[in-house]
Design a protein that fits this description.
Elements (H helix, E strand, L loop, with lengths): L3 E2 H8 L3 H9 L7 E2 L5 E3 L1 H15 L4 H9 L5 H33 L16 H15 L3 H14 L2 H23 L10 H15 L5 H13 L1 H10 L3 H17 L1
Antiparallel strand pairs: 1-3, 2-3
Helix pairs in contact: 3-4, 8-9, 10-12, 11-12
Length: 257
């Protein structure tokens, strides 16, 4: 095989020249040779190792861990590829399910087809829920782990009918809220107070504890602070994430005064 320069490798792999230089400097991907002109040259083995680096990065593994994995004398490239394929295939299946869930939700909100409440969460993995919980604890600390545990125990104690009713309640609230936005009602309008009051009561039920004004306003900041929450509200209506948060904060300020 013809040896490739760093620029050629960058072109076929999509990795920047600077990144390839960095990989060399940290011992993650050394070139096969360096010419008298100080050009780095890469062969087939280096290209396969770069593929492994990029596949591991797709799985969110840090560079220092990737280097340890690839430099392990017991590392088996074929076995690693098979495992990576299985993991990515499972993720592809889950993402396809999430796309179907989003499509069904959009159709439901448009009044085209009815959707069972239990189907709202298909494709959302327990690992993702654990990720959200960790994010909450890392961001807020304090009593957050206890609050999460209380809320989970409360929800798990409910019957399926009660869970379905809670899901239907928030779906109805959000639909009316989006309609208000589309009809030009300002986010801070007191006319939204009955709707926001119902949402605050829903939050209290989910938390299994009161939701004081400052906590309600804090929840608005939480929703704006995580891209998944923003994406969820934007899927209901363009601009709804900001509208939703602004309404909650305005309402919390009114009921606190």
């Amino acid at each position: 095989m013809k040896m490739l320069t760093v620029k050629q490798v960058a072109k076929i792999s999509g990795v920047s020249v600077r990144a390839l230089h960095h990989y060399d400097e940290i011992g993650l991907l050394k070139p096969a040779s360096v010419g008298r002109n100080n050009y780095r040259y890469y062969g087939r083995d280096e290209l396969l190792r770069l593929q492994q680096i990029l596949l591991h990065r797709e799985l969110d593994i840090p560079l220092n861990e990737i280097r340890a994995i690839l430099d392990d004398p017991n590392f088996d490239q074929l076995d690693a590829l098979r495992q990576q394929r299985d993991r990515l295939a499972a993720e592809a299946k889950r993402y396809a399910e999430l796309v179907r869930t989003i499509d069904r939700t959009i159709a439901d909100l448009n009044g085209e087809t009815a959707m069972r409440n239990a189907d709202l969460y298909k494709g959302i993995s327990p690992e993702k829920q654990a990720e959200y919980e960790k994010w909450l604890v890392d961001r807020y600390g304090g009593d957050m782990p206890e609050h999460i545990a209380v809320s989970k125990r409360k929800y798990e104690s409910l019957s399926q009918a009660e869970k379905d009713r809670l899901g239907a309640d928030v779906q109805e609230l959000e639909s009316a809220w989006v309609d208000a936005m589309k009809n030009g009602v300002p986010a801070d309008s007191p006319s939204l107070d009955p709707l926001l009051g119902r949402f605050r009561a829903w939050v209290s039920t989910m938390w299994n504890r009161p939701c004081p004004p400052e906590a309600f306003a804090g929840l608005a900041d939480l929703h704006l602070g995580h891209p998944d929450f923003v994406a969820r509200y934007e899927a209901l209506g363009e601009g709804f994430s900001d509208y939703h948060a602004a309404g909650m904060k305005a309402y919390a300020k009114r009921i606190a005064s």
